[in-house]
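2.7 Reproducibility. Because tokenized structures are sensitive to small changes in the input, we list the exact sequence used for Lipoxygenase domain-containing protein, including any N-terminal residues retained from the expression construct. No trimming or masking was applied before prediction.
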Amino acid sequence: MGIYYKSNRDIREDFELQNWIQALQRPISKQGFGVVSLPPRLTNRDQLIDILTQIIFTAGPQHSAIAWIQYQYMAFIPNMPGAIYQAIPTIKGVIRDENSLTSFLPGVEATFAQVNVMAVIGTKQDPKAFTDFGVNSFQDFQTCRLIKVLNFSSQAKQGFQTLIFYKATSLIYFLGIGRSLLHFWHNF
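Resulting structure tokens (single pass, no recycling of outputs):
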């Protein structure tokens, strides 16, 4: 954030950013997004950081926590139908026939559509789909430098984890603790 907005004044004077916040608040009937819980104007970096953090969390961890488990639950239609097409039975233990158990479930076309939607949103896609933005996405020097530092940090972290694992492995064998502890550590 500090690369593009050095001060709160930069936030207040960015007309594109102010137009964006107004578009988010504008009612859907007026081609907006209808978000009512936002400030009328962005006046400081903390506000923008909070909004972007919520968007990133919702689009990333929140979405994956919900979407990737939906297929297991919602692909079996009686478990979680997308809609109910008749009143469900209200009296326990009274079953007239098989049809009384399934009459509220969707038909073949709606079932097929629900299973397809769940398969699309509930299946892990390419893990780089939202992280690999290509070489030319960011052009300015400071952002490119930051990306290089973050990539190096990630690679260094993996290298350190490997080094720590092998050092610990050597220590475990040296102390004679044995294979069972090593197996536990590796699977931990």
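Residues 133-188 form one domain.
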